[in-house]
Specification:
Length: 350
């Protein structure tokens, strides 16, 4: 990783220390000689964003050696980001992670479970248009994210949690979803209110923000023996059993219809039942971005409850998947079902 220091306050003393972790994505791209978008050298950020000099910040910028399109992000990258934040948690006032929007909600969700008990803000942001474009949203997204990462009240961080700032809203990371690939308001959090709205000033929704817990925990192990099974009308038994039969599989995030409903055919339910008997966890997450799974509300979900499918309530798929990765990697699997359905950091309504 490359590291540079920018003191935007010189000759005055900076008021806050913020670490920017640059992973790649559209944000930092510029057109090459052939007109193709490629990552630019982040050391040149001040040329693209001279307004940074007006902030009173001591910035440390750490860049991935090879900035990536976030479609190539891996759990090993999450481990690198989590380690950087853990190692620098006490010496920095906050963190801004620049990340491609495509998988930002997965990374933000993963980080929220890997770093429990944060006292400092970890603000993910990116852009729909590269910073080299005149109409880019990159400038506003970065400047406001830096302000949020540095914001304190009574000497404590105002937003001590993993969040996503995009298109004038600050959302809880593990409640967010990418919903838009063309317009600037790319993210939505249907089941939880914004943590802040940025207008002329930044209005924090303080009652919605997590209160810091004692002691920062770093859980750096991830188990990826998980599959996502999205149901659709006409899904064949071959497809379902191909997924449940994956060797070494430990859990399935099953994306169901509406309030957690699924076909009632006994052949479909028998495949699930067999998988559960073998010890595979099946977590029911709705395909709807808003609302929640209520197993037993309809006839079409009653049996899921009876065979031991776990209700994921109002968790997003991104949160469910990454929470399972962290929980499955823990040594003890006692009460796993209970821990999956209990809020770790605001990802589920309990
Ligand atoms: N494909 C890009 C990425 O996720 C899109 C973006 O940054 O918005 O890295």
């Amino acid at each position: 990783m490359k590291r540079i220091n920018i003191n935007t306050a010189t000759p005055a003393l900076p008021q806050s220390k913020v670490m920017i972790i640059y992973t790649g994505g559209t944000f930092g791209m510029a057109h090459d000689a052939n007109g193709v978008l490629v990552p630019f050298d982040f050391n040149l950020i001040l040329e693209h964003l001279p307004a940074l000099r007006n902030l009173s910040l001591d910035l440390t910028v750490v860049s991935f050696d090879q900035p990536i399109d976030s479609s190539n992000i891996l759990p090993s990258h999450w481990q690198q980001i989590a380690q950087l934040i853990f190692d620098n948690h006490d010496s920095q006032d906050g963190f801004v992670v620049l990340h491609g929007t495509d998988t930002m909600a997965f990374t933000a969700s993963a980080l929220s479970f890997m770093l429990q008990g944060l006292k400092k803000p970890v603000v993910f942001t990116g852009a729909q248009l590269p910073i080299s474009e005149p109409r880019s949203d990159a400038r506003e997204n970065l400047i406001t994210s830096l302000e949020i990462a540095a914001a304190k009240k009574n000497n404590q961080a105002i937003v001590p949690e993993v969040c996503i700032y995009f298109g004038d809203e600050l959302l809880r990371g593990n409640r967010s979803k990418k919903v838009e690939s063309m317009h600037f308001d790319a993210f939505q959090s249907e089941n939880y209110p914004p943590l802040a709205k940025a207008g002329v000033k930044i209005d924090y929704n303080e009652s919605a923000i997590l209160k810091p817990k004692a002691g920062l925990r770093w859980l750096n192990k991830l188990d990826t023996s998980i599959a996502i099974l999205k149901l659709f009308p006409g899904i064949t038994h071959q497809t379902v059993s191909a997924v449940t039969g994956i060797p070494g599989l430990k859990a399935i995030v099953m994306e169901t219809f509406g309030a957690g409903n699924a076909p009632t055919s006994s052949s479909f339910l028998n495949i699930l039942k067999e998988a559960i008997t073998k010890g595979i966890i099946i977590l029911n997450i709705s395909q709807c971005p808003g609302g929640m799974v209520v197993q037993g509300r309809y006839e079409t979900s009653k049996e899921l409850l009876q065979i031991g499918v776990i209700s994921g309530s109002d968790m997003t798929t991104e949160a469910a998947l990454t929470k399972l990765m962290v929980l499955l990697a823990e040594e003890s699997h006692i009460d796993l079902a209970e821990r999956i359905t209990t809020s770790v950091c605001g990802e589920i309504t309990n």
